[in-house]
Amino acid sequence: MRTFALLLLLTPAAFADEVDLTPRSRSEHKPASLVVRGEGGTAFAPFGYLGGCISWLTASKLELELGAGGGFPGLQLGIAARQLFGERGAYLLLELAIAGNTRVNRVADSGTQFTSAGQSANSAWTNLGVGFEQRQDNYSLSLAGDIVFSTASLTPHWALHGGVGIGF
């Protein structure tokens, strides 16, 4: 009878949840706050067809980015602010960026697009978009789609950009 009582007491322990005791499970998950990311995108991407950026993530999940890349022709410069929503490295993002090209006025009509940006009235535009970012350990992967606005043209344009980065 004692053996039966002992078995009844130990049976619930067999159905207990598995507990992860690795060091990673005990510490709070914090993604890298500084990331250097290689970016690629379409003509209106904030950092050009092929470029890079430095990304800084604040404690309130606001991400600030500064970057440059090849606009082919010209140098494409951009600055972006992203608000991240999510937990443990997987984030939905909202993005607001300002970008421009030094040689090509991308927002102009196609006939006057390749004049020098210094001769044009406006070679800058604003991106507003949504996307996804995975910041896991020291790695970062992001993809965003944007609608592009400019004061030089009332026609909205589209941009798609993404990148892979290493965090510090």
The CATH topology is Porin
Total DSSP helices: 2
Strand-residue fraction? over 45%
User: Globular, elongated, flat, extended or rod-shaped: what is the shape?
Assistant: elongated
* Span between termini: 62 Å
Rg measurement, Å: 24 Å
Give the uncertain stretches in residue-range form: none
- Secondary-structure-based class equals mainly beta
Helix content: 10-25%
As for the number of domains, it is 1
β-strand number: 8
Please report the first level of CATH classification, the CATH class.
Answer: Mainly Beta
Q: What is the chain-wise order of helices and strands?
A: HHEEEEEEEE
Textual characterization of the structure:
By secondary structure, the protein is mostly beta strands. It contains two helices and eight strands. An eight-stranded antiparallel beta barrel has the order 1-2-3-4-5-6-7-8. A hairpin with a 4-residue loop joins strand 3 and strand 4. The chain starts with a helix and ends with a strand. The mean pLDDT is 85.
